[in-house]
Each structure stands twice: as C-alpha cells, then as structure tokens.
Amino acid sequence: MQFLSYDDVNSAITPAKAVEALRQVLRSGYDPADDQARTKVPLHHGEMHLLPSTLPHVAGVKIILLHPEGFETDLPLVQGQYLLADGETLTPHTLLDGAALTTLRTPAVSLAGIRDFIVDGSDPINVVILGAGAQGRGHAETVTSVLEGIREVSIAFVSRNEPDDLGYTWLRSGSAEAADALKTADLVLCATTAASPILQLEDVSAHAVIVAVGSHTTDARELSADLVGAAHVIVEEPRAALAEAGDITLAIEDGTLSESDLVSMKDVVSGAVQLERDRPIVFKTVGMPWEDLVVGEAVWKAHDSRGE
C-alpha cells in the first residue's frame, strides 16, 4: 500500500490533465446516473461521508470526516482520504490525501463541463471568480492550465476582504469596479460559502458562462432564481442536483425552472446536446463519487509511471 501526500497529488498531473480525464470517461460512454450514492454516517463527535464509486478496471472510496458546527479545534473541520483498489481483484493499493484530491477535482469538474464554451475564439477571455479561498484559487489555476496556448486569460477575484498573497487582480464585493468586471466577464466562477444569492441575472452579460460550486444543500444557493431561469442549465446528473443543489431546487420552487430544463454534463461533453449561445449558460456542480475516482486514478497512474 502506498500513500500519496498532499504534495504528491498536486504534482502528479496538471489541472488540464484532470479535466481531460473526466471528459474522456464521459465520452467513452460512462453515465453518472449509474454512480454510487453518497452515504452520511452520524458519529459521536461529527459525521462521516462515504463516497464509493466503481469502473470496470478500478474502484475507490473517499472517506470524509466532519466536525460539528461550532467544534473548537486546531485541526481542519473537514478531513479525509481516498482509497484506490484494483477493479478486478479488489485489492487496495493506494491511499491519496483527500484534501488535495478534492482541491484538484472540484475545479477540474467545473472546467470539464464548460470547456467547449471557452476554448473558441482568439480574443482574451475575462474571468471573474467570486470567493478567494482554496477553491477559488484552484479554479484560477485550472482555467489557466486548460487555456494555456489557446487563449490569453485575465482573472479578477471578487470578495469582501482582500486576501494575502493572492497574485491576481482583487476587487471588493459590491464595488462599482466589481460590478463592471462581472458585466463584461466571459466566465464567472462562484466558489463561496454564501447561502443566499450573490449573483443576479442583471449582473452578467447574455453570453456569460457561470459555474456555481459553493453550495451543496437544497436550502442554500449562490445564484438567483431569475438568473437560473433565464439560462441554459447544465448539471452533473439531474438526480444528484435535485438532491443536493439549492441553486436548482430553489429555482424550481420559485417557478423559474423545471426539471425538464436540466441538461446533463454527459450530454454536453459527448456532444449529444448542443447549446445555443443566445443566453447565459449555468453549470451547477455538487461533486459526485465517480469524479474523485477518475481524477484519483489519473493521479495514481501518473505518479506510478514516474516510479516514485
């Protein structure tokens, strides 16, 4: 059994390679509707999440442990690991750092779903990222990696407080500069902890592509109902979205969206569905077990091929 540390995972493959691994699995015929269910197990001092998944040649499970809200500790509130096993013998062979895998996988899924909409054109692409935490920065790195050699990328972060050592343009939430940047953005990435909408239809242009990754419960959302209702809406898999995505379920409750409006990531990536650029495109993600499995396997293979 080998262990891949945080640094091992981060150095094994580029974000663009993680994006391509996800897209290749979908193009090969895999249907996320066949993925295994996430299981939540109550513990004496928190909660454990189990995210198992399987493909013919590989199986794996992410184990996440969460402290309860308000728990005082110097440790991270969320900890976890990923276990990879051979798909035929079922022999476990690699344990990967769970935080590193999640940081790599989440923005890779975002870009895998919308890559086709941002690679066309030779003009620089304007990107605005709402939220300057680890996931926001991970999305900046992934956008840059995917578009390297294809388009010039201009990135601005919008948040309430200016973070240290950001290395990108920073704009304060609610400022006129932030509003202007959003209105002219080609790509808007929402990676915040907001529970109520921070982005409205009037904030973005008609050609904008918007990805929302921050909320994972049906009572929280980053996008307003009018924005979701006016857009083409892509989800990883409709049942998963209806179970976990407040951006989707609350828009349905508000009457601006219906279940039949949802387009699966698989259909977009495979080309089965072609979306017109006549209105904004929204991609709402919640994270699914198959995504960790695919990216985790790609990391392991790359690390193993180097003989480290």
Automatic annotation (TrEMBL):
Transmembrane segments: none
InterPro entries: NAD(P)-bd_dom_sf, ODC_Mu_crystall, ODC_N
Superkingdom of the source species: Bacteria
Pfam family name, one: OCD_Mu_crystall
GO cellular component: cytoplasm
PANTHER family: KETIMINE REDUCTASE MU-CRYSTALLIN (PTHR13812)
Protein name: Ornithine cyclodeaminase
